[in-house]
Structure formats: C-alpha cells, structure tokens
Amino acid sequence: MAHGDITHIDIPVSDLAKASEFYSGLFGWTIAEVPGYEGYPMWQAPNKISGGGLAPRSDGFEQPRSYVEVDSIDETVAAAEKAGATVAMAKAPISETSWWAVIVDPDGNHIGLYEGTT
User: Fold this and answer.
1) DSSP labels for 70-83?
2) Does the structure show a pLDDT above 60 at 108?
3) Is the pLDDT of residue 118 over 60?
4) What are phi and psi of 57, to 5 degrees?
5) In this structure, which CATH number among 3.30.360.10, 3.30.10.20, 3.90.226.10, 3.10.180.10 belongs to the domain 70-118?
6) Which InterPro entries match (predicted)?
C-alpha cells in the first residue's frame, strides 16, 4: 500500500458472533481472530485485498471508519489540523512497527490514519 490508500475498514458491532455470521454469510468474507488481537476479529473480502475488523461499538464509534495509510502520522495530523481538522485519537502503537490515530475532518467525519507495515 502507498500513502493515501485506504488500507483497513473497521465496522462497529454490538455482538461480534452475530456480526461475523451476518457479514460472512452476506458477502462471503473470511472472518477470524488474529493471535494477539482477541476480541477484534478481522475480515477479508474474497478478493484477498479488502479487509478490516469488527470492533466493539462505543461512544464516538458508531459508524464504519476507513483507515488511510500515510507515510507519517505526525506530519499528516499537522497538515490536517492546519486544514481545519481536529484529533479524535492521538497516535498510538498497534505493534512495534505500526501506529494509528483518528482525525475528524472539517465536516465531522472520523478518518483513521495508519503508519507502518501492512
């Protein structure tokens, strides 16, 4: 993936098992938990390219959220803020080689940022 590509889509759900059954049956997605990320099953589309996660629904996370791969979260957040965005979640580690953050665009949309090894 390259800077600017959508790399991941999280879908907020109330019942992980029910959502897994729904999306795998409806779209043919493969859905499974990945070791180290229990309680956050990952989905992959039949094209083996598109994917994301089923995440617990929470306050502030009530709609699907796309994650855009960036070369630098720090630089992207600075540019986003200069352009009128705010930060909903500061940069945080996913692993030793990857990070994520969430910005809110000037129209109120939450956009995830991803930096690291896909």
Assistant:
1) -S-HHHHHHHHHHT
2) yes
3) no
4) -65, 140
5) 3.10.180.10
6) Anthracycline_SecMetBiosynth (IPR052164), Glyas_Bleomycin-R_OHBP_Dase (IPR029068), Glyoxalase_6 (IPR041581), VOC_core (IPR037523)
